[in-house]
Description:
The chain is an all-alpha fold. The chain has one domain (8-129). It has four helices and no strands. The longest helix has 30 residues, at 8-37. The two termini are 28 Å apart. The relative contact order is 0.14.
Amino acid sequence: MNFQNVNPFIKKISKYIIVRSFGVAAYLGLLILFVEVFKINPVLSTAIATTLISAYLYLFSYVWVFNSKKNTHSYSLPRFLSIEMMTLFMNTVVMYFVVDVIGLGYVFGVIFGSIFIPLTSFLLNFFWAFNKK
């Protein structure tokens, strides 16, 4: 994909969407595997799946999405992990509320979580975790 003549913000959000799309696919695959095959509770499965894809998301966010070569990993990684912990908490709360409180299937939890969590994550990563010093 050629991004040479694109506004830097649009360029980053486009790359972020690509990386996160693969992340979401991996997350969904892991979630289905844990819930349907291993019979793990959907709330716990959400936490496990989110944690497992964090390394992939950090690497591609650091190198490709935000091109954060001017920042050290000691600068970006703790910030990224803080954001991931926040999104893990948000995903887990959404899944708990949808599955255990409302009584809907975990797929609805995925849908509801997918509405606002990725945007929150992008903005925090853009303005804080990978923002050049």
